[in-house]
Amino acid sequence: MKSLPIAIIAGCLFAVSLGTPLVWADATKSAEACSCSQSATDASPIYSLGGSAGESSGDASEAVPTAQATGSTTKSPEHTGVSGLFWKWFRMGERIQAAEPNWLSPLATTSGRLKQEFRYDVWRQPGTPGDADYNFGGGKGLEFIAAPRVQLMVGAPPYIAHEGGRTPDGYADIPVMMKVGLAAAGPGEGDYLVTLLLSATVPGGSASMRDAVISPGIALGKGWRNFDVQTTLGGNLPTGDISTIGRQLVSNTAFQYRALWRLWPEVEVNSTSFVEGKNVGQTQVFLTPGLGFGRIRLWRALKFSAAAGVQIAATRFHTYNHRAMFSVRYSF
Predict the structure, then answer these.
(1) d(CA 264, CA 261)
(2) Do residues 66 and 57 touch, judged by C-beta distance below 8 A?
(3) What domains can you pick out in the chain, each with its CATH number?
């Protein structure tokens, strides 16, 4: 019975990721064929999370070229078959990202943006003098928009390396996530978002836990010009071994500012309250100053960004301290 929640989540994620983009793309193609008699200036996106994609500003708006009506008889190349479905799916992702806030993803706080991005994190966690643990991957991976309101994330299991200790190295849990966008608007239309989160870690390697952990949550965000606040609230619910893993309520809030030279200074407040398990009744809070950089266009829609920071314990009780974090992202 412990594997039942895992099987349900895996089945839902597989069904959504496999069928939805193709069905949506085919429907989009039919809708565009029926509306071919309309003027290009009257055309509007089939789906928008909020506001007009054409009115969004910043890096996200660069992804959607504005349609222009001209008197030329030149036509764009036709995309048919598999390439046509892929093109429709890619264009869907561009429109959705252009119709939501264009904030940079914080270091520890999960972004509520639906995005198409590959992210790789590295953590260094000091222990006793002379010891340190390294996490290569950080529970991140490939994020892609599977449907107008759905984004999936699938990552490789992080590799845990130990320096100076006798603990063997190995791979940790496999991370997966699904986001469901409830509402969002770009910078010119309110600059906000509301997103449901459902993530899970599945045992996979020698350094993983014995049971899966399911983490439902919600992400909220609001921006005011160059300043934004992003927050998440959720819980960690293991499918077994609760006495060891425990259950926690997790809250993260990032205060972020878009400065000059594509710099994004931020401060995060990361809180974990233990409601079951060996640390029941305890709460740990971390302050995480950091600095982001990006997004820089590399080629066509491909962009690069990065961020670095350190988590510093702000409470007497804490399970770790001074965790250095570095993150690279390639968005498309």
Answers:
(1) 9
(2) no
(3) 117-331 (2.40.160.40)
Polymer length of the chain:
332
- Name the token pair of 283: 């709460």
Q: Please, which residues have CB within 8 angstroms of residue 46's CB and are 6 or more apart in sequence?
A: 28, 31, 148
All residues at 6 or more sequence positions from 124 whose CB lies less than 8 Å from its CB, including other chains: 132, 133, 134, 323, 324
Distances in Å between the alpha carbon of 196 and those of 6, 11, 113? 18, 18, 10
Please answer whether residues 16 and 178 qualify as being in contact, where contact means their C-beta atoms are separated by less than 8 angstroms: yes
> What does the alpha-carbon distance between residue 155 and residue 297 come to, in Å, rounded to a whole number?
24
- Residue 81 vs residue 263, higher pLDDT: 263
User: Residue 253, CB half-sphere, CA atoms under 13 Å: how many?
Assistant: 6
pLDDT tens per residue, range 62-90: 444 433 433 444 444 567 788 888 999 99
The 3-class secondary structure across the chain, one letter per residue, is: CCCHHHHHHHHHHHHHHHHHHHHHHHHHHHHHHHCCCCCHHHCCCCCCCCCCHHHCCCCHHHHCCCCCCCCCCCCCCCCCHHHHHHHHHHHHHHHHHHCCCCCCCCCCCCCCCCCCEEEEEEEEEECCCCCEEEEEECCCCEEEEEECCEEEEECCCCEEEEECCCCCCEECCEEEEEEEEEEEECHHHCCEEEEEEEEEEECCCCCCCCCCEEEEEEEEEEEECCEEEEEEEEEEEECCCHHHHCEEEEEEEEEEECCHHHEEEEEEEEEEEEEECCCCCCEEEEEEEEEEEEEEEEECCEEEEEEEEEEEECCCCCCCCCEEEEEEEEEC
Question: How confident is the model over 12-67, as pLDDT tens digits?
Answer: 544 444 444 444 444 444 444 444 444 333 433 333 444 433 333 344 334 444 33
Give me the pLDDT at residue 11, please: 52
